[in-house]
Amino acid sequence: MLQCGDKWGTCCNVDGECGTGESFCDIGKCQSGNCTFVMPSPTPFPGVPTTTMPPVSTPTPGGISPDGSCGGANKYQCKGSSFGDCCSLSGFCGSTTAHCQAGCQPLFGSCTNPSLSPDGTCGGTNKYQCKGSGFGDCCGASGYCGSTTAHCSAGCQASFGSCTTTDLSPDSTCGGTNKYKCKGSGFGDCCSASGYCGSTTAHCTAGCQSAFGTCTTTDISPDGTCGGTKKYKCKGSPFGDCCSSNGYCGKTTDHCNAGCQSSFGTCSTVTTSSKAPTPTGISTDGSCGESNGLKCQGSPFGNCSSGGYCGSTVNHCAQGCQKSFSSACLTTNVPSLDGACGASKGFTCAGGPINGQCCSASGSCGTTNNHCKTGCQKNFGTCK
Question: GO terms for molecular function, please (predicted)?
Fold first, then answer.
């Protein structure tokens, strides 16, 4: 069979003509030579003799492109050729944006994007990008480019390529304004109360945001309320393990002793230390407080709640906020998280999860006439 040489071009199209360019070398158009995709040689008919011609001298595979084609069967290189230094996705040398950026093949020439993966690896210390690399546009959890489900879904690193799930967390944050999700992110499947992905107990139980990841227990109180129709439980929540008679989580005597609802939390006598605990380090996962000695000051998480979790919501900064482990606990007009209020207790019904309720003469938040009329403490809530 006759072969194409460098005089007419090294690609032989389906019409039996030699040349260069997409009409000769592209997929489905080229039958032999330096095709972008090599078609199998035709099988001779039985009994029909074939003519053997002396081979035509062709450039060395892997050398500088003689005809503008690159990669393919001959692995021609564009760098140093007269056609342009970049090898496009379709296998042609050039110097335009179409040749040098998206789809540019770094193994066969130069590419404008210096972070494009040259070897199929991605992320890590080199921070190579997969999109347009030629190895596949998705960067898998193991740090390799590809286009399979294993590369593009669970564990796909959105910062270094395309991912099937567009709301997958690219930086370990979750929920909030971006509404990033943790499941399959590579940082851990649970979204903590502080808005970070992880797989520890601190991420997956108390305060875990089930809308943005997996949670171990779904009946833990997300807002400080307990019992009632929703039957939320306090144990393991960031508000405290005891469920008070008013239906609020906490860990004070008012929560854990008289009226404490044992079906929705722990009930016991609370003891406090006369000496303030000393923090031993800065929290790295959102957990804090007396239980582990970690503080929220200096971390990206905020203040330390009564349940031992960092954050910046009213649930973290108000009643029960652990001052020794926080940067800015509220000291005036402190919202009540458990329904306790009034001058004697120092908490208000306004501004927290029970905002808008009245503070009764006995010091509890509510909306009945007993709370809102006679004896209502107007400085600590609404009165009628």
Answer: chitin binding; hydrolase activity; metal ion binding
Report the distance separating Cα 267 and Cα 274, nearest Å: 22
According to DSSP, residue 330 is labeled -
| pLDDT value at 34 more than 80 | no
Q: Are residues 326 and 287 in the same domain?
A: yes
Expressed as residue numbers, the domain containing 286 is 280-331
CATH number at residue 224: 3.30.60.10
Same domain, 247 and 287: no
Beta strand extents in the chain (DSSP E only)? 11-13, 18-19, 30-33, 86-87, 93-94, 138-139, 145-146, 190-191, 197-198, 242-243, 249-250, 281-282, 294-295, 303-304, 310-311, 334-335, 347-348, 358-359, 365-366
Task: Give the separation between CA 116 and CA 106, rounded to whole angstroms.
Answer: 8
The answer as to whether 358 is a domain residue is yes
**Residue 340: CATH number of its domain:** 3.30.60
Q: How crowded is the C-beta side of 286, counted as CA atoms within 13 Å?
A: 27
Which candidate, 214, 199, 261, places its Cα nearest to that of 234? Answer: 261
Residue 43 inside a domain? The answer is no
38 in a structural domain? no
Q: What's the confidence (pLDDT) of residue 1?
A: 57
CB 145 within 8 A of CB 121: yes
Inside any domain, residue 186: no
pLDDT (tens digit per residue) in 170-207: 778 888 888 888 887 778 889 888 888 888 877 887 67
Which residues are CB-neighbours of 368 under 8 A, at least 6 positions away? none
What total of structural domains would you count in the chain? Answer: 5
- Using a cut of 0.85, tell me whether the model's pTM lies above it: no
- Averaged pLDDT of the chain: 80
